[in-house]
Amino acid sequence: MRIDPASTATTVLTLVGGPANVTSVTHCMTRLRLTLADPTAVDEAALRAVPEVLGLVSDSPDYQVVLGPGVVEEVTEAVTRTVAETSARADEGGKEGTGGTGGTGGTEQETGVRTSLRRIANVFVPLIPALIGCGILAGLNGLLLNAGWLPSLAPALSAIASAFLALIAVFVGINTAREFGGTPVLGGAAAAVVVYPGVSKVTAFGAHLSPGQGGVLGALAAAFLATRVEKWVRGRVPGALDVLLTPTVTVLVSGLVTLYGLMYAAGAVAAATGTAANWLLSTAGAAAGLVLGGLFLPLVMLGLHQALIPIHTTLITQQGYTVLLPLLSMAGAGQVGASLAVYVRLRHDGDLRTTIRSALPAGLLGVGEPLIYGVCLPLGRPFLTACAGGAAGGAFVGFFAMLGTTVGATAIGPSGWALFPLLTGSRGAGAAVAVYAGGLLTGYAVGFVATYLFGLPRAPRPSAAT
Fold it and tell me: Angle at the Cα of 249 (from 244 to 254), degrees rounded to 5?
């Protein structure tokens, strides 16, 4: 059934304390992400009961409202518009706005690893659409080159597909500054140093730097430093000189530190990340796949899977693809298998079977939240057996990596069947597709069998309206 985005947005905003309580609005592929000035104002029970809401992940002061693909974009647009209108009316009335730059309001007192990971994820989540589009074009270009078709079009496709990755550091810098309360363009300027070709003339630690050295990690560090320098300078210079001194000192200090420290350090970390990923899969691929595939669903449930984006992005910029995403995608396969088993076993639960039928297409395409929050997690044990299916699929893909056939994705975001156009690997796209398909089938089968045998009680669950 078609939902009304404006009505859903109004309902959600009312239940989170009103538009004035929202300091930041973003979204990923399936979730509306709100940062709240007063997290205690949320009526969680009522919010979970909203029909369009598939789930809720609370990480105070942030709330992730799971709405599903397609719907989330429309609702986010309506929420953003309402929050902006409320802020504008407050400004006209002489009140201090609650929006703030970069959504930092109410977050500066947060501590802990989860908060840091969430904020880093906020930097990279907006980049996913471009990564998906460019990754698909890169795959299409590879197919055309291998087949010898449209040779005159290949250079154009290559330029379009590669341009974003070549300059991704700048976008990371802009988003980093926005997230941490700095001026976005100054964050972009600091991060641009990382990819500027002229850095090859700079010597640091006895060697010439390379354009792109440090990648997105170096850009993240450079832009974060720029926000700190900007705030420090702005608080100490006279107002009349702020427009001249603050940007100049910010770019100079962050640029020098980036050239003579951050690029080298971030480059070492990026190289170690690639080496560690390759070593892990080549020596213990089956075990690594078992662990990664089995634990990914809990990460998705907590919303922490977005924190892996910097690692994926580093591997893509360094090697051309990330070998971790296909392993993690097996978690979705296990969940699809578990949901199918629930569908077969609980023949008399019409409401649950309807939920599975509506959520299954999204699950096959790698969007797992509808099945997590609508099927597996509420039932309890099917969530665990789904994890078992994901572990089996991950072990399958990891085993072939030990044999020399690694499977990678040229972009992040899609999984499930939607990942097929983005697959490549050490032995070409054909071998990668075959291994990945085998992993999906393994995940489906083990998730189904484990759930059918152990995930549900023998007696059918009585139908109950909720």
Answer: 145
Task: Give kind and range of the element (H or E) at residue 318.
Answer: helix 309-319
Does the pTM surpass 0.85? The reply is no
Q: Using only C-alpha atoms, what is the Rg of the chain?
A: 24
pLDDT at 190: 96
What residue ranges do the domains of the chain occupy?
5-110, 126-275, 289-455
Task: Dump pLDDT digits (tens) for 40-89.
Answer: 888 888 888 888 887 777 766 678 888 877 788 888 888 988 888 887 77
Dihedral sign computed on CA atoms, order 128, 328, 414, 150: positive
**One-letter identity of residue 305:** H
Of 417, 409, 420, 323, the closest CA to residue 131 belongs to 409
For residues 92 and 90, give the distance between their C-alpha atoms in angstroms, rounded to a whole number. Answer: 5
Q: Is 35 helix (H, G, I), strand (E, B) or coil?
A: strand
Query: Class of 5-110 per CATH?
Result: alpha beta
- H or E element in which residue 86 lies: helix 71-92
Q: Which sign does the torsion angle of CA 259, 262, 268, 273 carry?
A: negative
pLDDT of residue 113: 66
Closest by Cα among 372, 393, 396 to 384: 372
What is the predicted pLDDT for the residue at 452?
Answer: 94
SS3 at position 19? helix
Q: Which of 65, 141, 5, 206 is nearest to 424 (CA)?
A: 141
Both tokens assigned to 272: 């170690």
387 is catalytic: no
Q: Which tokens is 106 given?
A: 């109410």
pLDDT tens-place string over residues 381-427: 999 999 999 999 999 999 999 999 999 998 887 789 989 988 999 99
Which residues of the chain register pLDDT less than 50? 1, 95-111, 460-466
Token look-up 């070492």 returns 268
C-alpha 199, offset from chain centre: 30
Closest CA to 81 of 19, 136, 29, 141: 19
From the candidates 28, 134, 376, 387, which is the catalytic residue? Answer: 28
Give the chain's mean pLDDT: 86
Q: Across the chain, which distance is largest between two alpha carbons, in Å?
A: 77
Q: Which tokens go with 172?
A: 């990371």
- Which region, left, alpha or beta, applies to residue 73 given φ > 0 means left and ψ of -120 to 50 means alpha? alpha
